[in-house]
Specification:
elongated, single chain, Structural Genomics Hypothetical 15.5 Kd Protein In mrcA-pckA Intergenic Region, Chain A, Alpha-Beta Plaits, 4-stranded antiparallel sheet, 13 strands, binds uracil, alpha+beta, 237 residues
Length: 237
Amino acid sequence: MRIDKFLCDCGIGTRKEVKALLKSGSISVNGKAVRDAALHIDEKRDLVCANGEVLIYQKYIYLMLNKPAGVVSATYDNHLPTVIDLVEDAYKHFEVFPVGRLDIDTTGLLLLTNDGQLAHKMISPKHRVAKTYSAHIAGTVTQADADIFAKGVTLDDGYVCMPGDLHIINSGTESDIELTIYEGKFHQVKRMFEAVGKKVLTLKRLSMGGICLDSALEEGKMRPLTEKEIQLLQKIQ
Ligand code: URA
């Protein structure tokens, strides 16, 4: 790979800044200053330093965001803030995008990555990736609802959902539930409850593909996944 691409991918600066750094002699490869932006290096073997500091090449990043309400799960929006606006400076150069979508009013776990292949695997219905939500519901959620969800509830457009696991935490005029589903149709959880005559008041994603929302992560904050968490994602068949 070209040294200038390596440096940009490491987040050292823009192409222009990288060019200037090279020119100034601040970049060394295996102990020798290099000024040629077109020089090819082996990112796995060569030791690249910027002002004496060793640079470790990282192509992909996997971030866990605790999504707040009021931001859209998109890379760009004309009017509304997006989850990309929340990306901290240290991760900006990775150019991440959200893995699937949460509604603007849904909070909780949203993964951000620049690994297109993994993102595709996570959202493809073929892989039946489990997603668990907690929700506060207007209405009395009953075992009969759980049985309907377990069989596959029919949505307003006639689509029959894959079986979902509904766990009732408490049930009254309003109810608290956890629901695990294995697909991600548009507004799926809200529409599943509408199909049994109930309304979702608040919705939060707790987990996806075995990755649980870190309870120490405040809304609007993100952290990189641990090696263990990344391995969980890579195991998805
Ligand atoms: N189901 C919904 O209805 N909304 C979400 O944001 C996620 C799942």
